[in-house]
Amino acid sequence: MDKLIIRGGNRLSGRIPISGAKNAALTLIPCALLTEEPVTLRNLPRLADIDGFQHLMTQFGVATGIRGNRPEDFGRVVTYESGHLTSTVAPYDLVRKMRASILVLGPLLARAGEATVSLPGGCAIGNRPIDLHLKALEAFGAQIELTQGYVKAMAPDGGLPGGDFDFPVVSVGATENALMAASLTNGTSRLFNAAREPEIVDLCNLLTAMGAEIEGIGTSDLTIHGVKKLNGATYKVMPDRIEAGSYACAAAITGGEVRLEGACEADMHSTNTALRNIGVEIESDKHGMTVRADGPLKATNLSTAPFPGLATDMQAQLMSLLCKAEGTSVLKETIFENRYMHVPELMRMGADVETEGRTAIVRGPVDLTGAEVMATDLRASMSLIIAALAAEGETQVRRIYHLDRGYERLEEKLQLVGADIERVGDE
Ligand code: EPZ
User: Fold this and answer.
1) Ligand 1 centre from 335 Cα, in Å?
2) Which domains does the chain have, with CATH numbers?
3) Ligand 1 atom nearest residue 169's Cα
4) 275: which residues sit within 8 A by CB, 6+ positions away?
5) Which of 105, 169, 175 to mutate to test the pocket of ligand 1 (most atoms within 8 A of CB)?
6) From ligand 1's centre to the CA of 245, what distance in Å?
7) Model confidence band, residue 66 (pLDDT cutoffs 50, 70, 90)
8) pTM score
9) What is the pLDDT of residues 140-182, one digit of tens each?
10) How far apart are CA 23 and CA 9, in angstroms?
11) How many CB atoms are located within 10 Å of the residue 192 CB?
12) Which range has the worst mean pLDDT, 12-21, 121-130, 342-351?
């Protein structure tokens, strides 16, 4: 298994291209199941999770054509052709490796009238139930059965009638499943307290390009007038706001200046507010963002929340940055119950962090030192890399398959701005 070796202390400077957003791509790909016509996605990141989803799509008989496959290219253009679905079953072996597989449930059900998808099971950051995905589909007229670890969803003859659903908790994935299904129903559906993350807006924009009729895009109340047929479309995946935020933290912790090519400030308001409060300067224009940290970093209090609040996917990376900030910061993780797995590893690098339930108290600034650490999930892994960039000496990060799921060509991008980082095979 590969590991990353990072020698800290280099000030990052230069340009990093920001890839297409993983979490947008993972909901745009299953949209191809909603139509017989080809759907082409541009700017798809090259990531293990995207390859995994591609694999899942072939399980349903979807043909995929990939362009932009040269190793030196960032991003890919992939066309999905779902003219004839040969299966509506997502098996355990594929779903257990990637929770986002649950996002095929809504589109398969709406298109084929039935879908059988393995329950995803547990996850390192929390229980992550899928009850809201199922309740929303039931509200649209689906019959749901749970049997032998699988969800079996059936639509009445003639298709889903559509209906209303009020989310008791904001859920990105359940909103995505509901939107995809509601777009191809016989009636009008309304979603209240829906997630309104930029990735949801990206999904609505693709569905609209495919002929869906959605009102309230970008708000938490959505009205979807179902249509009988959706058409194909060509669509460019939005830039990855979490990748951009992660590299902003990396630049800042080294006192560096980095241009994030393609990053979109409008999607990153809460992250950028947090960074500015910490003392990081950010300038943005329509082609990207420049992040500069040449003064002292200051402690700040942060609380994660659904968009437009601070993304839970940025909590770990900001925590690393706060280890180098003057004063005491209090962090609250309100979305997932177990998202402080990086804390013990950061403490092994010299961080002073205390956790109690969903609260973490970070005292800084501390001198970080290199250590052998273990990645536990995607964003936790990134927080270790950020800390390593500012640490004295060498850090070895193991279990980096987590990173390959969500950061396209990570070490290459960091090398571009002067980081001393290399990937080596583990002995
Ligand atoms: C998405 O996960 C993202 N994944 C996550 O990114 C992200 O952390 C999360 O949204 C929150 O922003 C993808 O987009 C592929 P949720 P999702 O449903 O959709 C509870 C990363 O690192 N809930 O919004 O699974 C749930 O337990 C990843 O890139 C229910 O109770 O998250 C959680 O507490 C990790 N019942 C809260 O809602 C449900 O049916 C929000 O989860 C669904 C969710």
Assistant:
1) 8
2) 2-18+239-425 (3.65.10.10), 22-236 (3.65.10.10)
3) 38
4) 245, 248, 249, 252, 282, 291, 318, 321
5) 169
6) 18
7) confident
8) 0.97
9) 999 999 999 999 999 999 999 999 999 999 999 999 999 999 9
10) 31
11) 11
12) 121-130
- How far is Cα 240 from Cα 234, in angstroms, rounded to an integer? 19
Q: What is the DSSP string of 149-199?
A: TEEEEEPPTT-----EEE-SS--HHHHHHHHHHHHTSSSEEEEES----HH
Look at residues 139, 135, 159 and name the one whose alpha carbon lies nearest to residue 230: 159
Q: What residue type is 5 in one-letter code?
A: I
Tokens found for residue 184 = 């191809």
Confidence at residue 91, expressed as pLDDT on a 0 to 100 scale = 95
Burial class (CB in 10 A: 0-12, 13-18, 19+), 386: buried
CB 257 within 8 A of CB 417: no
Give the DSSP letter of residue 126.
B
Residues with CB under 6 A from ligand 1: 23, 26, 100, 126-133, 169, 171-174, 195, 311-313, 335-336, 378-379, 406
123 an active-site residue? Answer: yes
